[in-house]
Amino acid sequence: MLLTDGVTVWLPAGHFEITGGETDPGVRVPYLNGDLLSAKTVALGTEFEYRSRSRAIALFKDRPARIYIDSAPLKTAVREATNHLSILLPQERHRVQILSDGLLP
Question: Does 77 reside within a domain?
Fold first, then answer.
């Protein structure tokens, strides 16, 4: 699960034990402005579930190969800024997968 900026790790409410992983899936989400409900590392990326009363924004550093919202391909554009990329996510509760192409940067 990599909802982190390298300093802070975002977790859903509850109690957790955090340990270092053996592999880096290559997709980090340093910011999400929705309520994080769950998060995990999946093959080639990160999957998280969130809830938001309005559209949410997720930031990430490297361009992902694929993004899915509730198992459907993302329909909006990935927006580029100086230090990050961002996507606008729909309001309410959704599951997001952000996947790399499996190649190292």
Answer: yes
